[in-house]
Design a protein that fits this description.
The complex is a heterodimer.
Chain A (H helix, E strand, L loop, with lengths): L3 H7 L3 E5 L3 H10 L6 E5 L2 H11 L3 E5 L7 H10 L8 E5 L4 H10 L3 E4 L4 H24 L9 E2 H18 L3 E8 L2 H8 L1 H18 L5 E6 L2 E7 L3 H16 L13 E8 L7 H17 L5 E5 L8 E2 L1
Parallel strand pairs in A: 1-2, 1-3, 3-4, 4-5, 6-8, 10-11
Antiparallel strand pairs in A: 7-9, 7-10, 8-9, 11-12
Helix pairs in contact in A: 3-4, 8-9, 9-10
Chain B lengths: L24 H23 L3 H14 L6 H16 L10 H19 L4
Classes of the chains: A alpha/beta, B mainly alpha.
Chain lengths: ~325, ~120
């Protein structure tokens, strides 16, 4: 499994151009081609706003003087929408008054280029805006990465999980999610000290990174609790993965304390498609399975298949 | 009035500054292909007294001309746009006839430059 941050850096950045002039689209298409950008073009404000939400561009080049919805209105909408508010916007405009520039910057533009613009200058300004966009993306991802393990943190899980469940419900896709909690972790801390406890947590993170696939999302939820989201994976396949994690952790030899083994209990809920659970209900069901795994002796996986008409509850 | 000027034929074609820029060849050709339609639109707007359309067309050429390698088009379109914006609301368009002529002439010369394979 790799952190998604790496995948984002490799993707071709999207530049959205919102301008009612076909000429501007043509010229930018020719001049920005060497920048390795995917250029997405809109001839009016409403079309541009829709594309900004659906394509989430790395930079927006926005004309101010457009009929119906002018560029100021488009800019206001972009900055008021949580989905698009951090996308850097460069204003391209024939309006040259200081007041227009002040208004554009006040509304959240990062740059203002007057028409007719020098295309070489525009190219370097676009590069600067893309650097800003990459830094903002990195900052936002760092805020969702757990400092001790490098896994995604609870904030990322809370943001990501509802999206995965709604995708599963809407498109009938398979989905599984497991909650893992180390057994008797407190005694590790009490016996060997907190640095040893940290090493055990990091050991679990390393194991998850090794066993999970590229598409899986492994998160540290806090303390000794972890969660793994497994998109496009039914309960049976998820159970195989969870068993591999459970056994791999149990068999791990801790370099400084080879006499000690640590185990984990896992509550798993999965569906091969058409699940009807809400995100909260799904978490609650996984928590109940985790509780059962603890109650039935720990170091085990309790799984529920919530595919309609599927058999219920199997234990590993 | 902006009528066809018989002296245009004597003026040399206007090549794009980007005639030798491979990255620009395709878009300059597209621009040249659009010139007859733009000239028709400019004449129609002028002759029908449609100030809004004429201002928009001048504004577009002002912004784009230099980008395609025709700074003279940007200057001429800019002069026309500035004149139109300075006109009183009830001002007649006849006062910008010379600017319209100048712009149309440059457009025609740019089209000729393209047709002669200058880009």
């Amino acid at each position: 499994m790799e952190l998604e941050a790496n995948r984002h850096e490799e993707a071709q950045p999207v530049a959205l151009v919102i301008d009612d002039s076909v000429d501007v689209h043509r010229l930018l298409r020719a001049r920005l081609k060497p920048e390795g950008l995917e250029l997405v073009q809109a001839l009016n404000g409403p079309e541009g706003l829709a594309l900004a939400v659906s394509r989430l561009p790395s930079v927006v080049l926005l004309d101010l003087d457009m009929p119906e919805m002018d560029g100021f209105e488009v800019l206001r909408n972009l900055k008021e929408n949580p989905t698009t508010q951090h996308v850097p916007v460069i204003v391209l405009s024939g309006l040259q008054s200081p007041q227009d520039k002040v208004t554009a910057f006040d509304l959240g533009a990062v740059d203002y280029v007057t028409k007719p613009f020098d295309l070489t200058e525009l190219r370097v300004r676009v590069r600067a805006a893309l650097r800003l966009s990459q830094l903002l993306t990195m900052l936002s991802q760092r805020a969702q990465i757990d400092g001790l393990t490098g896994l995604w943190n609870r904030a990322h899980f809370d943001k990501r999980w509802p999206d995965e469940v709604s995708g599963c419900v809407r498109h009938g896709r398979a989905l599984s999610m497991a909650i893992l909690d180390m057994d008797h972790f407190k005694s590790v801390n009490d016996t060997y000290g907190h640095p040893a406890g940290d090493a055990v947590i990091q050991g679990m993170a390393t194991l998850l990174q090794r066993e999970c696939r590229q598409s899986d999302v492994a998160c540290r939820m806090g303390g000794e609790e972890f969660a793994v989201i497994m998109p496009d994976t039914g309960a049976d396949a998820a159970l195989v993965l969870c068993e591999r994690i459970r056994v791999g952790f149990e068999q791990h030899v801790w370099p400084r304390h080879p006499e000690r083994f640590v185990t984990t209990s896992i509550g798993l809920v999965g569906s091969s498609g058409s699940a009807t659970l809400s995100a909260e209900e799904w978490i609650e069901a996984a928590d109940q399975n985790l509780y059962r795994a603890k109650a039935e002796g720990r170091n085990r996986v309790i799984a529920t298949d919530v595919t309609p008409k599927a058999r219920l509850a199997k234990a590993g | 009035m902006a009528q066809p000027n018989p002296s245009w034929g004597a003026l040399p074609p206007l090549p794009s500054l980007y005639a030798n820029d491979p990255a620009m060849k395709e878009v300059v050709e597209e621009f040249i292909g659009d010139i007859p339609e733009r000239v028709r639109s400019i004449r129609t707007a002028f002759e029908s007294g449609n100030r809004v359309d004429l201002t928009r067309l001048a504004h577009q050429l002002r912004g784009a001309g230099a980008g395609y390698g025709y700074p003279a088009l940007t200057s001429a379109a800019g002069a026309l746009e500035d004149q139109l914006r300075a006109l009183p609301n009830d001002g007649a368009l006849a006062v910008v006839a010379q600017e319209v002529d100048e712009l149309v002439m440059l457009c025609e010369r740019a089209a000729q430059g393209g047709r002669k394979g200058s880009i």
